[in-house]
Write a structure and sequence with these properties.
The chain is of the alpha/beta class. It is 28% helix and 18% strand. The protein is built from 14 helices and 24 strands. The chain has helices at residues 130-147, 157-161, 217-231, 251-258, 277-292, 322-335, 352-356, 362-381, 392-396, 402-409, 442-451, 480-485, 503-518, 524-527, and strands at residues 3-4, 12-15, 24-25, 28-29, 39-41, 50-53, 56-61, 70-71, 76-77, 103-108, 114-115, 119-124, 190-192, 203-206, 236-243, 266-270, 298-301, 306-311, 339-342, 418-422, 432-436, 456-461, 473-477, 492-493. Strands 20-21-19-18-22-23-24 form a seven-stranded parallel beta sheet, sandwiched between helices. A five-stranded mixed beta sheet has the order 13-14-12-15-16, with helices on both faces. It has a four-stranded antiparallel beta sheet with strand order 1-2-5-8, with no helix packed on it. A hairpin with a 5-residue loop joins strand 10 and strand 11 (114-115). The longest helix is centred in the last third of the chain and has 20 residues, at 362-381.
C-alpha cells in the first residue's frame, strides 16, 4: 500500500511512502514527487476551497491547486478563528464490557491505588535544593553498591567515606562515577539499586525542577499541586520530600496540602533545620528503603490501569497508524473497566466538537466547553495566535494546519464516551475516558498526565523523541523508518499498519506489550535513565 484515501469524502490522499512524479494515485497522475506523509490533491481545487481529510475540512487552499499536486502548509491555511459557541448534540457509543477480564502484575497500595513500578522518589520543594537531593541519592546509591559487594562505576566504601556528607566522611568535594554525567544508570538522576541481602531491587530517582519560590498565584499553586500529586502517586513505594526552609513553598503548608500519608514511606524535612542535610536525608532513605524493598507484585485487573495518551513530533502518518492504534487500545482499556486520559487542549482545537458530542451528559459537555475556551482565552491574554500550532517538524512530516493535527491527535481516544474532565493538576476521580487541561508541550503535558494518576504514558511520534516523564513513557512510532533509525527511543512500531498488517494483529501485539510494561518490563526512557518533570508556568517570576 503506497497511499491512502482515509474517508470516501476526502479530496486528498496521503502518501504512505515517498511517491514519484508520474505515478498514479486514485487514477490521478502526480505532477511532482510526494514525500511520505504529505497530501496530494485528487481533483482540481479553486483558491479558497476546503481541503477535506478524515472527512472534515482541515483548512482551505490559498491558490488554485490542480489535481496531482502536493498541498502543504505553504498553500493551506486554517479555517479556525476566535472563540466559538457550541451546542450539545450527543453522539454516544457505549463500549461493551469485556467478556474476559485481563490482569497485570502490579503493586497494591494501602490507599487502594495500584502502581506498575515500586520506586523511591526524592522530590525537592524548591529548585534551590536540587543539588542536595542529587547528592543524597548519589551517596545512597554508593551505600547500596558497597553493601552488595560493589559494582562497576560506583564508589568503593573507602571513596564514600572520603565524601563530604557520607556517614563519618569529611568535606573534600571529590567527584566519582556515580554523579558523573554519562555514567551508566545515572542520567538525570535515575539510579538503580542492586539486590541487597535478598531484598527486591528498587530504583531511586530525584526529580529536580526550577520552581517552588519566586512564583505567584496560579503558578505557585501549580507547582505545589503537581509535587503533591507525585507524593500520592502509586508508582512510588516511598517518597522523600526535601525543603530548603525559606522558599515560598513552605513545608508545613505543603504537608497540609498533601494530607495524610504513610509516614513509614513518606518523609519530609527542612535542610535549614538540620546540621548535616545529606546525612539526615540518607538516614530517611535508609528507613524508607527498608519498608519499600519488601513490596511484591500481585495479579491486578486491568480495570486498575490508568493510561495517559499523548503525541509529539507528529507527522502525516500519525492519524493513520499510531493514533488510531491508541484509539483501539483506549477502547479496549475502557471495556476492561480501566481509564484513559487525553490532554493537549490546543491540539483539540478544530476537532473539539467531536469530543463534546461524546460527553456523557450536559454537565460534562459544559466542562469540556470551558476546557477549550479557557485555553483559547489563555492564548489571547498572552497576545499569541490561537491556531498557529503545527511545529516545523509537524510541517516537514506533512501536517499543514491545526485542524489536520487535531483530527489526527484526537483519534488516540477511540470512540468511548467522555466520562470526566480534569483541571490541570487534578487527580482522577472516575474511570473511563477523561479529558485533562494541559498544553501541547510534550514534557509539560506528560507530567500532567502522570500527576493526574496515570501509571504510564503512551506517546506516539513520527519524528522521534528520547524524553521520559516521571512514569514509564512508551514511544510508539508512526512509521517503520523511524523505528529502524531510533531503536533506542522507540518501544513499538505502529508503522506496520501502513504496510498492510491488520489493525487486529497489531493491536493484539500492542496490548500484550503494554501489559508487559505494566508488569515490570522497562521501556526505553527507563533503560536510558531519562526521567524528568516540567510544571506549567504562565505568570510572573519575582
Amino acid at each position: 500500500m503506497r497511499f491512502i484515501k482515509i474517508n470516501p469524502s476526502d479530496n486528498v490522499a496521503v502518501a504512505l511512502t515517498d511517491l514519484g512524479a508520474g505515478e498514479k494515485v486514485e487514477g490521478v497522475t502526480l505532477l511532482k514527487d510526494v514525500p511520505r506523509g504529505h497530501k496530494v490533491v485528487l481533483r482540481d481545487l479553486r483558491a479558497g476551497e476546503d481541503v477535506i481529510k478524515y472527512g472534515f475540512p482541515i483548512g482551505h487552499v490559498t491558490a488554485d491547486a490542480p489535481a496531482g499536486t502536493v498541498v502543504d502548509h505553504s498553500c493551506v491555511k486554517t479555517n479556525l478563528e476566535g472563540l466559538l459557541d457550541y451546542s450539545y448534540e450527543p453522539s454516544l457509543v457505549e463500549i461493551a464490557p469485556a467478556s474476559v477480564q485481563r490482569t497485570f502484575r502490579g503493586y497494591r497500595r494501602a490507599d487502594g491505588q495500584v502502581g506498575i513500578r515500586n520506586e523511591i522518589w526524592v522530590i525537592p520543594t524548591v529548585g534551590c535544593v536540587n543539588g542536595i537531593c542529587q547528592e543524597i541519592v548519589r551517596r545512597f546509591q554508593a551505600e547500596l553498591a558497597c553493601a552488595s559487594g560493589g559494582a562497576a562505576g560506583l564508589e568503593s566504601a573507602q571513596q564514600a567515606k572520603a565524601r563530604p556528607n557520607a556517614p563519618g566522611g569529611g568535606r573534600d568535594g571529590a567527584e566519582g562515577d556515580v554523579g558523573r554525567p554519562g555514567a551508566a544508570g545515572v542520567a538525570n538522576g535515575a539510579l538503580r539499586s542492586e539486590r541487597v541481602r535478598g531484598q527486591s531491587p528498587l530504583t531511586v530517582v530525584v526529580f529536580p525542577h526550577n520552581y517552588g519560590c519566586s512564583q505567584l498565584g496560579a503558578d505557585h499553586e501549580n507547582t505545589r499541586t503537581v509535587l503533591a500529586d507525585m507524593v500520592h502517586h502509586p508508582n512510588a513505594g516511598g517518597v522523600l520530600v526535601v525543603s530548603l526552609g525559606c522558599e515560598n513553598n513552605q513545608l508545613d503548608a505543603f504537608r497540609a496540602l498533601v494530607g495524610p500519608v504513610d509516614e513509614s514511606r513518606v518523609r519530609m524535612f527542612v535542610c535549614q533545620q538540620v546540621e548535616d542535610e545529606v546525612e539526615y536525608g540518607l538516614q530517611q532513605l535508609r528507613e524508607i528503603y527498608a519498608v519499600c524493598s519488601q513490596d511484591e507484585r500481585e495479579d491486578v485487573p486491568v480495570s486498575e490501569l490508568r493510561v495517559g495518551l499523548k503525541c509529539g513530533g507528529s507527522d502525516g502518518l500519525s492519524g493513520i497508524t499510531a493514533n488510531p492504534l491508541l484509539g483501539v487500545f483506549s477502547d479496549w482499556i475502557v471495556a476492561q473497566g480501566g481509564t484513559t486520559v487525553l490532554t493537549e487542549v490546543p491540539e483539540m482545537f478544530g476537532a473539539e466538537t467531536i469530543l463534546m458530542n461524546r460527553c456523557q451528559d450536559r454537565e460534562t459537555f459544559d466542562q469540556t466547553v470551558s476546557l477549550i475556551n479557557d485555553f483559547k482565552e489563555y492564548f489571547m491574554r498572552q497576545g499569541m495566535p490561537v491556531y498557529e500550532n503545527p511545529s516545523p517538524g509537524n510541517k516537514a512530516g506533512g501536517i499543514s494546519t491545526l485542524e489536520e493535527k487535531s483530527l489526527g491527535c484526537t483519534q488516540k481516544c477511540g470512540k468511548s464516551i467522555v466520562r470526566g474532565v480534569l483541571r490541570y493538576g487534578e487527580r482522577l476521580r472516575v474511570k473511563g475516558l477523561n479529558l485533562l487541561s494541559a498544553p501541547g508541550n510534550d514534557l509539560v503535558a506528560s507530567t500532567a498526565l502522570a500527576a493526574s494518576g496515570c501509571q504510564i504514558v503512551l506517546f506516539t511520534t513520527g519524528r522521534g523523541t528520547p524524553f521520559g516523564s516521571f512514569v514509564p513513557t512508551m514511544k510508539i512510532s508512526t512509521n517503520s523508518a523511524l523505528a529502524a533509525l531510533k531503536p533506542g527511543w522507540i518501544d513499538f512500531n505502529a508503522g506496520v499498519l501502513a504496510e498492510e498488517e491488520t489493525m487486529e494483529s497489531v493491536s493484539a501485539r500492542f496490548i500484550e506489550t503494554v501489559l508487559s510494561v505494566a508488569s515490570g518490563e522497562e521501556v526505553n526512557n527507563e533503560k536510558n535513565g531519562i526521567r524528568e518533570i516540567a510544571i506549567f508556568k504562565s505568570g510572573v517570576t519575582l
